[in-house]
Design goal:
By secondary structure, the protein is an all-alpha fold. The protein contains two helices and no strands.
């Protein structure tokens, strides 16, 4: 395991203590869960942006193909 040191404001530390206590877990476990949650959220946002960029790249060619199909149908 690797060690990560954080500098927190007194308010941040107090909130972590209170939230961890309310969940019945240690501050360390609370921090690990919080970081895991944030990593999942960040990775989802990266993937969503990649899909949006890919969609924008193929939009023009998709419109051309749709126009060709329209001509064939008529």
């Amino acid at each position: 395991m690797r060690i990560l040191t954080l500098k927190l404001t007194p308010l941040q530390f107090k909130e972590i203590e209170e939230n961890a206590a309310s969940k019945g877990i240690s501050k360390e476990k609370y921090g690990v869960e919080a970081l895991e949650f944030y990593n999942r959220w960040t990775n989802r946002n990266i993937l969503a942006n990649a899909f949006a960029n890919a969609s924008a790249l193929v939009r023009a060619s998709s419109m051309e193909i749709n126009a060709e199909f329209d001509q064939l149908i008529e």
